[in-house]
Amino acid sequence: MTELTYKTAGVNIDAGNEAVRRIRGLARSTFTEGVLSDIGSFGGLFRLDTSRYREPVLVSSADGVGTKLKVAFMAGRHDSVGQDLVNHCVNDILVQGAEPLFFLDYLSTGRLEPSVAESVVGGMAAACRENGCALLGGETAEMPGFYADGEYDLAGFIVGSVDRSRLITGRTIAVGDVLVGVPSSGLHTNGYSLARRIVFDHLGLAVDAHVPELGRTVGDALLEPHRSYLSCVRPQLENTRIKGMAHITGGGITENLPRVLPHGTSAIVRTDAWEVPPLFRWLQESGKVPAEDMFRTFNMGIGLIIVTSPDNAEPLIGELAARGGRDAKVIGEIVSGEPPQVTYA
After folding, report:
1. What is the spatial distance between Cα 63 and Cα 174, in angstroms, rounded to a whole number?
2. Order of all β-strands in the sheet with 152-163
3. What is the C-alpha to C-alpha distance for residues 283 and 281, in angstroms, rounded to an integer?
């Protein structure tokens, strides 16, 4: 009988060790003053600087990249999905006023390729550095027979902090307030099941096919990294201009904006207030997707919505533009209504 080992069962401990060796330096490059442990510990240690707060509140979120990973597999490009994961999580806690402290990841695959793991974590490390967030640790799991060859799954967990007095909850949103939309960088990390069905199944395009309407390849368009809004919004967290924020992810504006509206209010979104980017128009036309479904699936070019008073809208837009939030604009207003919902005009 052939001798059985963990390696013959499909788990290569040596490959795992090599992946950790490659990843360790990437993670260390993100460490901030609060990090008290090194990669390889059973748990990540982080010291919260309580002198910054009168009443510190920890804000956490967990998410994944979804089927955008399928496009990465097809293109053989693995660095941008790590950026997607971190930036998505950063935005999710930012809308409540929190700034990131540390991030943890989970990477699982059928057969571990150290170079692929290095590329994925390299993208996460780059995004963590840009957001001032420590990549504190994570888990890389080799699970033979669980994933198709060459595929993996990716998830992340973030923890941030905010003083309780500066939490952004949406409670002060009132009828007459306006909606400031900040542009997205593309599909971000949502709607890829529909996008892939249109592009690869319906149109039969290859990932490297050049699309004249987009001015680039399908892969380049679909793998555009999810944008982080922290750098342009952070200075506004110190004042009271922002009453509420919605990160436009799965469910589009239709499902995400009502999550921050108090009872008795609804929103009117004026779709002629901004130009929908070519990628969304091309997907809609190619797949003959109803407008209602487009706005409930994709961000349609608006990745973040900020609710503010009419008097504060223009100063806010100007300050966002000064810090990279160019082309932010008023796209609608708050009206009375119950339950909270979005109406398009």
Report:
1. 30
2. 56-64, 152-163, 99-109, 134-142
3. 6
Measure the CA angle with vertex 228, ends 223 and 229; round to 5°: 140
Q: Give the domain range for residue 28.
A: 13-166
Q: 76-88 pLDDT, tens per residue? A: 999 999 999 999 9
> How far, in Å, CA of 254 to CA of 256, rounded?
6
Which residues of the chain fall below pLDDT 50? Answer: none
In this structure, the strands spanning 265-269 and 244-247 are unpaired
Last residue of a domain, one of 166, 189, 219: 166
CATH number of the structural domain spanning residue 70 = 3.30.1330.10
Per-residue pLDDT, 1 = 57
pLDDT of residue 193: 96
Question: What are the backbone dihedrals phi and psi of residue 212, each rounded to the nearest 5 degrees, phi first?
Answer: -55, -40
Total residues belonging to the chain: 345
- Residue 190 identity: N
Phi, psi of 299 (to 5 degrees): -80, -15
User: Which CATH number characterizes residue 207's domain?
Assistant: 3.90.650.10
Decide if 4 is inside a domain.
no
Cis amide linkage into residue 339, ω under 30° from 0: yes
Sign, Cα dihedral of 99, 319, 229, 191: positive
Q: What span, in angstroms and rounded, lies between the C-alpha atoms of 192 and 70? A: 9
**Tens-place pLDDT, residues 88-126:** 999 999 999 999 999 999 999 999 898 999 999 999 999
**Which residue matches tokens 């089927």?**
67
Q: Are residues 70 and 137 in the same domain?
A: yes
